[in-house]
Amino acid sequence: METPDSDSSVPPPHVLIFPFPIQGHMNCMLYLSEMLVYSGFHITLLLTDHNLSLLRNNSSSSNNNNNSHPSSLPNIPRLRVLSIPDCLPADHPRNLDGWVELLDSLKTNACPLYKSLLLDLCKMDDVDADGFPAVTCVIADGILPFMIDASEEVGVPAIAFRTASASSLWIYYCIPQLIQSGEVPFRDGADWDEPINSIPGMESFLRRRDLPSPCRLAKNPEDKVLQLLATCTAHSERTRGLILNTLETLESISLEQIRAHMPTTYAIGPLHEMVRAYRSQNNVCAHDKSVSLWHQDCTCMTWLDQQPHRSVIYVSYGSVAVMTRESLIEFWIALVNSGEHFLWVVRSDLLRGEEWTNIWDSLSLEVRKGTEERGCIVSWVPQVEVLAHPAVGCFLTHSGWNSTLESIVGGVPMLCWPFAVDQQINSRLVGEVWRIGLDMKDACDKTTIEKMVRAAMNGETASEIRKNAHELAKMVKNSVVEGGSSFENFQRLIEHIKSLCK
Ligand code: UDX
Predict the structure, then answer these.
(1) pLDDT tens, residue by residue, 24-49
(2) Keywords of this protein's UniProt record, alphabetized (predicted)?
(3) ω into 185 cis (within 30 of 0)
């Protein structure tokens, strides 16, 4: 790993990192921050006031720590956290129900505040009260193109970071072709299993139903979300670089296509494994938790310790999915009827307008008994640790990109139930391309879920996907150590940032 520039007259790069304020985006951009600190950089991680206060609440409820640095963030020298308001009411849903308004508010209301903060941070001659030099580069979430433009307007070069898979970005980039070919929006009565032909490199496996949800849901070519994703992806072409939390071996075809348009693309993932490998090789003792907007319930680890090897199906729908009561009940009955042990993350805001605990009374006695005997339901877990636990045999996942990478690194096969945005294409990669799991998209009835859970946990199919997952994990882990593609790409990224900071 690089060290700070030996020429002491050159101030070390100071990078401001600004993730879109939801859990999945914050996690991997925090890992990137940590990696850059290890490379000698100063890092300011910019969060929203809302999220920072959630982190502070979580840290004070977990350890009564009065330190102003939230303890759920790693306490690392040269890494600090600042925040700006997202300018939305405290009770605005910051999940899939409210993310478009969140984006709008960041653009209209928060962006001017960001610009004036950045002006203050980049115009210093010396160091500030925290001992940080002037900001010399910005890495902003690629779905915030207006923040990238604002940075450049202030005179700070900006790089885009997209947290989703390269394959989903490649599809977003091709939205104009999908529209031109008439494949999107779907015509009435379209066969969802029909192949999609206008995405170069994906002709052999991509079906209509595997397209990201904005393509599936658009009613007309001007659809707001469809155009928003097309526009912010095309915007990355005009930035100083594009960082992706993926790796060459997993997504070589999409990366090759993306690089034909955006040559300075750096595939440096999986970042959580990069950080872990760096810490363990260098005896860095940093606390190993991701930033958590929900309080992590670590009692599940004790529960896992008591379960037999590979006997548990771990179930989670990520950080932003919102479900109906009916769907949740189908899952509940299926999990119990499968006879498997299950660890189930049910977030406090998973159900729209209702506490999930209300459902308990409407369940049959048999389902309640099965839950008590074989289930453990919690609101949030340390997911990377859960996926590394030997009791976990399979991950029933919504196929968010972080969860997918975390499962791959853990060597845990997946049962995919994609929900929205990039998840539909991610689950297709898992089921059809890498063959490390089963794709259950568009099914939500108890009979199918039970059948799929059984198939993913036991029998011939289960052995095959487990074997493939194990092999893929080895390959992926090799990419983050010296000589591996992500490791080498990361070194190139460091040089690129330094060249921008001169
Ligand atoms: C969505 C998209 O689907 C994803 O692909 C995109 O890149 C980010 O936005 P999200 O629902 O947040 O993602 O899922 P995911 O990307 O999987 O991220 C969830 C994160 O929360 C993971 O890093 C996971 O480890 C963490 N998590 C989840 C926990 O730490 N504990 C939990 O109980 C559940």
Answers:
(1) 999 999 999 999 999 999 999 999 99
(2) Glycosyltransferase, Transferase
(3) yes
What is the complex's ipTM, to 2 decimals?
0.98
Q: How far apart are CA 288 and CA 275, in angstroms?
A: 9
Which helix H or strand E contains 394, and what residues bound it? Answer: strand 392-397
- Sign, CA torsion 428/430/433/439: negative
Helix 365-374, helix 325-337: angle, nearest 10 = 70
Tell whether ligand 1 has an atom less than 6 A from the beta carbon of residue 25: yes
Note whether 184 and 212 are within 8 A (CB).
no
Q: What Rg, from alpha-carbon coordinates, does the chain have?
A: 22
Q: Which atom of ligand 1 is nearest to the CA of 345?
A: 33
pTM (two decimals): 0.95
Whole-angstrom Cα distance, residue 459 to residue 437? 13
Distance CA(56)–CA(70), nearest Å, equals 5
Q: Which residues are catalytic?
A: 25, 141
Q: Are strands 42-48 and 79-84 parallel, antiparallel or unpaired?
A: parallel
